[in-house]
Amino acid sequence: MEEVKNRFVTIKNHINGAPNESDFEIRSETIYTESKQVVVKNMYVSVDPYQLNRMKSHSSSQAAINFSAAITLGQVIDAYGVGRVVASGRPDFTKDELVVGLLTWGEYTIVEEGRLLNKLDPMGLPLTHHVGPLGFSGLTAYGGFFQVCKPNKGEKVFVSAASGSVGSLVGQYAKIFGCHVVGCAGTQDKVNLLKEKLGFDEAFNYKDETDLKSTLKRYFPEGIDIYFDNVGGEMLEAAVANMNTFGRVAVCGVISEYTGGGRSAAPDMLTVVYNRVTIQGFLAADYLKCYGDFISTTAEHLRTGKMQALCDISHGVESVPSAFIGLFRGDNIGKKIVQLEMNE
Amino acid sequence: MEEVKNRFVTIKNHINGAPNESDFEIRSETIYTESKQVVVKNMYVSVDPYQLNRMKSHSSSQAAINFSAAITLGQVIDAYGVGRVVASGRPDFTKDELVVGLLTWGEYTIVEEGRLLNKLDPMGLPLTHHVGPLGFSGLTAYGGFFQVCKPNKGEKVFVSAASGSVGSLVGQYAKIFGCHVVGCAGTQDKVNLLKEKLGFDEAFNYKDETDLKSTLKRYFPEGIDIYFDNVGGEMLEAAVANMNTFGRVAVCGVISEYTGGGRSAAPDMLTVVYNRVTIQGFLAADYLKCYGDFISTTAEHLRTGKMQALCDISHGVESVPSAFIGLFRGDNIGKKIVQLEMNE
After folding, report:
1. Which of A107, A158, B118, B131 has the fewest Cβ atoms within 10 Å of its own Cβ atom?
2. What residues does the Enoyl reductase (ER) domain cover (chains A, B) (predicted)?
């Protein structure tokens, strides 16, 4: 039996609007591990907007609760990440091995059997790449773009939250595939980054625009074939109004609505009918069947420099709450990751 | 050259809200036909809600105009129907033949080359069946249910405007296919008809309900797998809130919004994401590839009594405006047809 002193982030209360520092606390605990458990020292963990849905008391969506159980006050919070095994009671993991899987917003994760954990071969790439473009954000972008959007070469693609963890990858997949790609983001720096570093054909700052329908009409004079939606709300309405016949909208996230501040989208259903638009929600977990393709394709693109990984890293367990809160203010550029092991 | 005295319905002005008698007039004209034209005496013509979208001045949806050109004031209005050839300048049609295709809200149709017109074999079924369940309403129901909804046996299906021209057929296809089917309509008589004549498992009057989300939860304790949407608005929101994972919503029409009175649907996109719901607009014209299957299957069901054709017939060209206006008040039960040739 191993004794582990752990510090972790938890919520003090359920959160129904935008999250604040006061909603979180750092707790300390001593864990006495049992046989058949694997103890992982967390190195890099993912910080994602969807986690807010698990922190709500009465989720606006019953579905959210059904899919992903609500977080219990005071308990550890799951997060995807990369770590190193420090003790293992299982034959399939040994001490000092690198692993990737469902870790926690804490210094250590006690991994019970059945919990997602795999050995990690870094393939010569930085460990943060395995949390971002080769992690669940990557699979979300890959599955969402190729399986849900079903692109054809030359099609016109619009990506919202395009400098975010998923959007930045979708835009790059779409460019490599041969689509015309326009992204939007919330600062001029992000817009520049999309055009200069990620190769988007066009990008704009949605905060500078007063009439999003006209804005999209300007950027897509021939209409939008594919809209990869990370935000919902008014942008979804504006995109639907500009969709071409047989256009596809992949709904990946609804960040404008997570904090309860934004207006729900009321897309024009007459356009949906006449233009035969498909609006489809999806989760990365449904595309695990293309996991092998996803990893090999993406690792190759990263290695050859065809794709760029945007990672935005904070340091230490204490930084998790502010990293998370910042997501809803658009503070992050690319994948938000917290590095937990400082001597790495 | 043939001289035809024709009376037809037209609009005096564009219509942006609910239609009124004063928006329409009956005009008389004398047509001198040319060679290569076919003159059809209209017998039964279809009256459909979507035609209102063509009567708007500034369509709420640019898409509607793109797909289906706006109606010109004072001109004849196209409508699907059955008629008899009274003169033909084309070798492929002969006098006295029955035909089906794109006719008009008038006594005669002058058919130019390229306009949809086919010889009609009634297959021993009433001519009205060829306007309704074997016409475009039927193809809409068949294509929408089988191709868009992609049903599996045993799935739970919800149909709105279930006693309407399309809904009444969708519900019957779904029952025959082996689904559990619940419909809604706007009067108790219609509700009784759905359950007693059309074999729906359950039906309810939406006007008796105050909270549609709860109503659907009551009728679908295990959730909805397929929602065939004819109405949009609040019902679409309520259905989306009750969709099962991988549920499909086929958006066929948005009658609650055509007249500008209803509120646009703002379906909960968080449910769309977490439950991986697909919302897809469609038009019957996209499913012409399954026309042969559709006709043979449906004719067989009608002949054997497995399916019932609900037809609601008015008489004479003068009755077209009130028949059309009545669609938006829910006056019709089943397919609204105007019979134009009284001595048939």
Report:
1. B118
2. 17-338
Interface residues from chain A to B (CB-CB < 8 Å): 53, 59-64, 66-68, 232, 236, 241, 251-254, 257-258, 263-266, 268-283, 286
Q: What distance in Å separates the CA atoms of residue A106 and residue B308, rounded to the nearest whole number?
A: 64
Q: Look at the block and give the residue holding tokens 């990869």.
A: A228
Residue identified by tokens 């469609």 is: B282
Tens-place pLDDT, residues B136-182? 999 999 999 999 999 999 999 999 999 999 999 999 999 999 999 99
ipTM exceeding 0.90, yes/no: yes
Q: What does the pLDDT look like over A313-343, one tens digit per residue?
A: 999 999 999 999 999 999 999 999 999 987 5
- Cα A328 to its chain centre, rounded Å, is 13
Residue A44 in 3-state DSSP?
strand
Distance between CA B262 and CA B77 in Å, rounded? 26
Residue corresponding to tokens 């004079």: A221
The answer to whether the CB atoms of A281 and B275 lie below 8 A apart is: yes
Most A CBs within 10 Å, among B60, B269, B287, to test the A interface: B269
Separation between Cα atoms, residue B236 and residue B265, nearest integer Å: 6
Give the residue among B62, B16, B57, B68 at the shortest CA–CA distance from B328.
Answer: B16
Distance from CA of B262 to the nearest CA of A (A): 12
Location of each CATH 3.90.180.10 domain in chain B: 3-132+310-339
Do the Cβ atoms of B269 and A272 come within 8 Å? Answer: no
Residue A236: Cβ within 10 Å count? 27
Helix (H, G, I), strand (E, B) or coil at A124: coil
Q: pLDDT (tens digit, 9 = 90+) per residue, A34-86?
A: 888 999 999 999 999 989 988 987 544 454 444 466 888 999 999 999 999 99
Q: Which fold has domain A136-285?
A: Rossmann fold (3.40.50)
Instruction: Spell out which residues of chain B touch residue A269, defining contact as CB-CB under 8 Å.
Output: 232, 236, 251, 254, 257, 264-265, 281
User: B3-132+310-339: CATH homologous superfamily?
Assistant: Medium-chain alcohol dehydrogenases, catalytic domain (3.90.180.10)
CB proximity list for A14: less than 8 A, separation 6 or greater: A55, A56, A57, A70, A73
CATH 3.40.50.720 maps onto chain B at: 136-285
Judging contacts by C-beta atoms under 8 Å, the chain A residues touching residue B277 are: 280-281
Residues 6+ apart with CB under 8 A from A171: A157, A159, A162, A181, A183, A194, A198, A199, A200
Beta bridge pairs of residue B111? B38
